[in-house]
Amino acid sequence: MNSSEFYILSVLAKEKNMRKAAERLFVSQPALSQRLQSIEKQWNTKIFIRTQKGLLITPAGEKIVEFADEVLAKDAKVREEISSLDKEVHGTLKIAVATIIGQYWLPKILKEYIQKYPNARVSLVTGWSSDIVKSLYEDEVHIGIIRGNPEWKGIKQHLLSDDLYVVDTEIKSLEELPHTERPFIQFKSDSTYYQEIQVWWHKQFQTPPKRTIVVDQIETCKQMALNGIGYAILPSVTLQEEYETINKIPLARNEDSTLHRDTWLIGYESSFKLKQVEAFLDVLGEAAKGQNNKNLN
Q1: What are the helix (H) ranges across 16-119?
Q2: What pLDDT is stored for residue 181 in this prediction?
Q3: What is the pTM of this model?
């Protein structure tokens, strides 16, 4: 039986009259009578008995009509839920994000997203940009947020640019770097970041740092610099707090510009059509706009 046949039984049970039921269903009485006979044949039992006063439901018919009403109620509920999916954001948002962005920039955005769309879920993984691109290729995530300037053939949107700074408790100018005995504290990152720093350094000084310390995490690197162990080169996105005892010196690219790091949103067009992704992009766009305005100021 289909939903229209369940509806016929429900109307017949309520009206208890073939003529009134036919009028309500916008069919002729003979057509309705024929449909009822077909339904009773499917159930292999009599559902209604015709009398001079109208339709009399049989004991078997009572159970069948009760079942029909339950199915119709469930059908209506499911349709309402499906309709609400068009208005509300549901589903899981799967994101792969560069570790720095995931640690310092994204939490506030995700908080806003979850508060605005409480029915949505978030699956988040962090890592190097090369790992994020791989996750997209393997269809493990909907969108990726990466650092640098990758070659990507799908959708690619610029989110923000943040300047790079020498951070130290003692060094106050770039001219001191080739002469200091303080160690250069570096954190492991993707190759493009190292390459940018190395190219900048050799253009400025021609000789490598006298001492270096390499750590696994950017936060470890940052804390070591803040505690006076040595100097580090850090992106401004990691330096959101104000530090009274720290010197922040921008890395000059030339007389008119400073060295910076770009952040990009990448993905495939099919994923961008998902409602949970569209909602996230709206929240992300506002945040990126605010960050860029802040950087301009």
Answers
A1: 18-25, 29-43, 59-87, 99-100, 106-116
A2: 94
A3: 0.67
